[in-house]
Specification:
- There is one protein chain.
- This protein has 12 helices and 9 strands.
- It folds into 2 domains: 81 residues, no CATH class; 146 residues, Alpha-Beta Complex (Aspartate Aminotransferase, domain 1).
- Helix 5 runs parallel beside helix 10 and helix 10 packs antiparallel against helix 11.
- A 4-stranded antiparallel beta sheet has the order 4-5-7-6.
């Protein structure tokens, strides 16, 4: 049994082939339909024919109410994943991930395994900056970078506060960003983390609270917004006009 929730898109996009593709080998494969597969939030179960009867009993006996719009979205996602363009996208995810890892290394950040072969990389913020993962995560979110803290091997800060950050590139790749933008993101991450300090109360260093100068937040947010203005999620939509219309309707 293999769960390929994180890397299903890399299998569909033929980045993971041969022994890195679990489909020919596993009796049962589970996966989400979001993450690298880039579909709606949901899941799927694949299996060999000999287990089909048992797997099929899972629906509807142990699943919640069906959501037709999510079913339709999954169908769209599967169709996209079967196209050659998706293979280009999947390979670009890894290219960007490796560029981001190298960018972080060049900025002096400690990247576990000195790089990555997939869509994710882990950064040890305790070793380089004396921060917990929770502090680093919160500081970066305040600076308009969304990511999450993550435990590291033999993590002395435990699974809640952690010592690391988990960074991925599927979303930025979907926006159309490339190697140059990954270097800029690494630079912004370094800017924020290098200026973040734990709060100390009564001689004890907090594992959650932190201090970050307002001017650093402003600079980081501006650099992030400059990136997003160049790589808009829905460039065909005039968001300012839409917000203006919503505001007018609300006042009316």
């Amino acid at each position: 049994m293999v769960d390929m929730a994180h890397f299903a898109g890399l299998v569909a996009g033929k980045v993971f082939t041969g022994e890195y593709n679990p489909i020919p080998y596993a009796h049962v494969v589970t996966s989400t339909t979001h993450k690298t597969l880039r579909g709606p939030r949901g899941g799927l179960v694949l299996c060999k024919q000999e287990f089909a009867e048992w797997v099929d009993k899972g629906c509807p006996e142990i699943l919640g109410g069906p959501l037709p719009h999510v079913m339709a979205a999954k169908a769209v996602a599967f169709r996209e994943a079967s196209r050659p363009e998706f293979q280009t996208y999947a390979h670009k995810i890894v290219e960007n991930s490796q560029a981001l890892a190298q960018g972080c290394l060049d900025e002096g950040l400690h990247v576990l395994t000195d790089g990555t072969d997939n869509h994710l990389l882990l950064i040890d913020v305790a070793r380089t900056f004396g921060l917990t993962g929770r502090q680093a995560e919160s500081a970066l979110r305040a600076s308009s970078i969304t990511l999450n803290r993550n435990s590291l091997p033999f993590d002395t800060n435990g699974p809640w506060y952690t010592s690391g950050l988990r960074v991925g590139t599927p979303a930025t790749t979907t926006l159309g960003m490339g190697v140059t933008e990954m270097r800029e993101i690494a630079s912004v991450i370094k800017l924020v983390l290098s200026q973040t300090t734990p709060i100390v109360n009564n001689g004890k260093k907090s594992l959650a609270k932190y201090a970050l100068p307002a001017n650093v937040i402003d600079e980081a947010q501006q650099r992030v917004h400059d990136l997003l203005n160049r790589f808009m999620l829905y460039p065909e939509l005039d968001l300012e006009l839409m917000l203006s219309s919503l505001t007018t309707e609300a006042h009316a």
